[in-house]
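hey m, so remember when u said the tokens were messed up on ur end? i reran from scratch. heres the input so u can diff it against urs
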Amino acid sequence: MKTAFRIILSVALVGTVCRAASAQAVDVSPPGLGAVVREIPRDMWKFFSWDTALVLSIGGGAAGIGHIWDDDLSGELETNVSLNNAMEPGHTYGAFSFQALIGIGLYSGGRLAGKGGLATTGADIMRAQILSQLYVQALKYSVQRERPDESNNLSFPSGHAASAFATATVLQRHYGWKVGIPAGLAAAYVATARVKDNKHYLSDVIFGGAMGVAAQRTVMLHSGRYAFSVVPSGGDGVSALTMVVQTR
């Protein structure tokens, strides 16, 4: 259990490159699906930035340190029977399909309820999932690192870790650390489960987590924010309209 805790703690540190943010104060108009889709090509281009370089440099350095314990941790966790049942849900939760469904659910719920902030959160998760997986899969097929269980050569980086950390950091950015900390711990749990299942080395999940963080920052710090809304304001017999523009 101490080993599992050490992995969760080390992987969770990747998420600290995201700055803290307060919860959304102003609810805006829900973004249309077309507007969300139009942002994806821009996300792919904006991913190449100094900010991404910094995040991946931190992740790469951490992965390099983690590489020292790759073989030892994989063997130790694989033989730790007490972790088998505890780690099993992590494979499902970290899957791209599951994480994408979180985004789709939040987006659809926000649209139906007229909650623009919730719909925007879901849209950002969907975009971050697509962006992270595009580049993670490209790296997998380029690097061709063999998995610890020798099942294939797609070990580096971890797609599950990227998806889980992309969602976690989007939630943190929108709603602050009260949501971000539990989401980050869930992402670290996913990363630990992948190492435990002998599907990844420690360095794989660390860099995968960094890819997820970089995708979130690209989506929320660099690209467009869909739209603006106009809300009524004024007082004392004076009517006015105020334009509210979503911040990056």
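this time it looks ok to me. Residues 12-25, 226-230, 239-248 have pLDDT under 50 and may be disordered. if urs says something different then somethings off w ur setup not the seq
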